[in-house]
Amino acid sequence: MPSRCEIFCEILIAILLPPLGVCFRHGCCSVEFCICLLLTILGYIPGIIYALYAIVFVDRDQYFDEYRRPLYAPA
């Protein structure tokens, strides 16, 4: 479970660069990242909205197993 400080920093990054915030949270090769990148290319505001949704509401622990976790996650 991420701390409040981590979530706050990810939200700030997601407001500035939405795909980067989602990348920190879910990894660069995830579906959430691809959707956020596409929405940001199509429009900045939809990218921000989806990034905030992906960071705050989507629980990454239930989707990641041994092989699909981000590189920076502790083993």
UniProtKB/TrEMBL annotation:
Location(s) in or outside the cell: Membrane
Pfam families referenced in this protein's UniProt entry, alphabetically: Pmp3 (PF01679)
Transmembrane segments: 35-58
Signal peptide from the UniProt entry: 1-23
Cellular component GO terms held in the UniProt record: membrane
Predominant location: membrane
Lineage: superkingdom: Eukaryota
PROSITE patterns the UniProt entry points to: UPF0057
InterPro entries cross-referenced by the UniProt entry: PMP3
Membrane keyword on record: yes
Alphabetically ordered keywords of this record: Membrane, Signal, Transmembrane, Transmembrane helix
PANTHER family linked to this entry: HYDROPHOBIC PROTEIN RCI2 LOW TEMPERATURE AND SALT RESPONSIVE PROTEIN LTI6 -RELATED, LOW TEMPERATURE AND SALT RESPONSIVE PROTEIN FAMILY
Family named by the database record: Belongs to the UPF0057 (PMP3) family.
Name listed for the protein in its UniProt record: UPF0057 membrane protein At4g30660-like
Source species of the chain: Juglans regia (English walnut)
Upper taxonomic lineage: Eukaryota, Viridiplantae, Streptophyta, Embryophyta, Tracheophyta
